[in-house]
Amino acid sequence: MATLYAEGDAARPQSNSVTDPAKGPQLRVLITWALLSVTMIVINLNLITMMRFGDPDDALRLLQVRDLLAGQSWFDVHQYRIAAPEGVAMHWSRLVDVPIAGMILLLRPLLGTAMAETATVIIVPLLTLLCAMTLLGRLAARWFNDEVVALSGLMIGLSPAVLCQFTPMRIDHHGWQIVLALTALSGLHARNARQGGIVIGLSLAALLAISIEGLPLTALFLGICALRGLRAPQSRFDWFAASAGTLALGSAAIFLGTRGTYDLVTHCDAISPVHLALLGWVATGAAVLHFAAPRTLVGQLGALGVMGLGAAAIMFGVAPECRGGAFVMLDPLVKRYWYDSVAEGMPFWHTAAPMAAAIAAGPLVGLYGVYRLWREAGDARTRLLWLDHMLLLAGAWLIGLAVARASATALVFAAVPAAALIMRGVYHLRSVPILPRLGGYAIVISLLAPGLPVVVAMSAAAPLMAKASSGHLEKSVGGVTLGSLGISKCRYDVAGRALNQLPAVDIFAPLDIGPDLIVKSHDRVIATGHHRGAAGMHDVIAAFMASPDEAHALIRKRHASLVAVCPDIYEPSVYAARAPQGLMADLLRDRPPVWLQPVDIAPGSHIKFWRVVN
């Protein structure tokens, strides 16, 4: 058994039998999950009752599922209520739609459509959370006692960057990405190379189908599997062959099962035929290494090098446009005012200070923990296993530093070794005097929640910051008050009910509120924050920052009948601040141009509407 504990230490955690229903890890995991779930439901109850999504992607995901259940083709992922009539081809996978659609179909006969949808957007994220906690619990139970098992699951609840992906109404794909990454980690800990490789390959195939952002993590897993072959030539690269082969076959099967032959164009933002060719090349090379592995280390490294060069040639020779990533071809205006403003897609220092601290420091606790496990392992096989875990965690941490939303993977990879390290400290503190014990517990809390000290420091500095700003907590540019990052007063449910009493029209609205408007009403919008609809995104941003006359031409070009703005969110204030004489600034000052007529369509919604008149 791997241990962080000295031989003979009475506090050393021993793994309990998972078959013991009273003390087994499953019960600990279930209790922790239930407490977290109830807490999140209570905290989000107001948003749940209003069916108000915390992220526009979640609203649009529900709309995609509705369209699927209403008869839209399984292979057609266009959203036809954006930039109608052509619509926008979404880069999302139907895999994520399956549990949402299945739950709605299961509950609809019992609750009706509306209540079935509400129950589904609560249940699905929480079941996803249970999957993640179960995977962590099973991994922890293999090495440690029930206290470490429980703390490993609780680490999710103490990490906002992870927990936010499992909150009620968070039905988009990010939670499933975490679950699939943990499933692949479980495969890496398997005792059997063939079984472990198959688990890794299938998990990564589903992960890539859901989001191409999993490609660096996929390369990391395959690299570690190849390293196992280099360390043990007698294994004939069995880990690498099993994982790469299953990944290639699984990706092809998922592609055909979810995309068919409907869309064979090369995309940089989703698995495409060029990616399947790349994975097939790697799988072929891995099979050659398995059946005819060079006997020397130089030969093995040469073979792996040829494999890597060939993969790069396939990717960038066939799809050179993908060299800079999925967003390199974005319109400059869209990139500046949309993509560069999405903090979760930027390096960690673009996020709020507490979140940045958690992203940067959180995995380091696990890294030190897994380092101790590696150093103190009792046998060579276990030592190498923890070394692989350490390399995987270090790589995932670097990926998370570069792309903030990917940091959740590193944090869950760190959970088990971090929990073991922290419990070691707790066991030690039980035997020390009270004052040092209190100081020790403060350190433990800081390790559990690295962002907490930053929150405390910012709270302490808040009075000084307020004084420095002369008490003005709101900024104003050109007479326009900048939007808040707090909870908006806009009620899309109220607006939707009112809009549904009128004929369906095209609404010209800021990007962030588009999904909420169309999921609550039968209307259409020009664009949302989804890069495949970049032409509509450009027109929306340009119009709101343009002079009234220029904006009128863009709005008429898009055949919009209404303009809608939620005045207390951040996006409108950005346009107004950057273009104080533009259309948005005039609308926020209640000085619309003559071709916009204010209409009180939805009293009580806090959303402003104007009708376009000629």
TrEMBL record:
Protein known as: Glycosyltransferase RgtA/B/C/D-like domain-containing protein
UniProt-annotated stretches for the region Disordered: 1-21
TM ranges: 30-48, 110-136, 148-167, 198-227, 239-258, 270-289, 301-319, 348-371, 383-404, 410-429, 441-466
Superkingdom of the source species: Bacteria
Key words of the record: Membrane, Transmembrane, Transmembrane helix
